[in-house]
């Protein structure tokens, strides 16, 4: 796994994978690269080396790897080998890792519900037009930003006024503050690799709490965990569905004897509308009964719910 546990995105993918695999007696060994904390390229490379040593020592019948960092630093090193490879949560094009040229890999692409998320935000806040996108410099966000630009073009009346990218938490905060007078809404992408002035990783929960306490703009993202930490709205990419789809691919390989290359790499289609009710109230937004019924409602910020 690229990231650590406990975390909804990591844990949900693994839970879904076990379910989709449907082999309760399977022996599953787990290595967490924890690239939120080991965020530099040098640290990621070292975590990848350790992960590969772990895989080689375990000698699995199949390797399942989640998210882009694990593909870059682990999975691609086994392309062309006899080890079947299954991935999920991949933002970049499979060709970026050489997956399009290998016969022993398949998996599940992570594709954001951009237009649906922007439309949900418009239902909550009618009339907004100017959107600012904020992200760290993680390489996989390049592809996401391109898809956001395409999604914005598909939603009439929305203008993407600025894309701000930084690795510095202070600069991220400055961009949020500057947007208060220049934008009508924010879209948060990469916040996992921001660092403070001393170069230490800033937990994404702290980033989100700062935004909640200092921004009056409605905002959106694409993942359920963000809504739990104060982002107003999202049509989320389901981590459970990502894992289930990967588990079904693994089962087809291990149980049914399918060749990985015969199983198409494709995204999950199911998205779940989600709304932070506490954030809506803080922004003076009334959530209609139809939105309450159709969406997953998060009633409290995670840092308050766990007091």
TrEMBL record:
Pfam families: ABC_sub_bind. It comes from the Bacteria. InterPro entries: ABC_transpt-TYRBP-like. Gene3D superfamilies: 3.40.50.2300. This is ABC transporter substrate-binding protein. It comes from Rubrivivax rivuli.
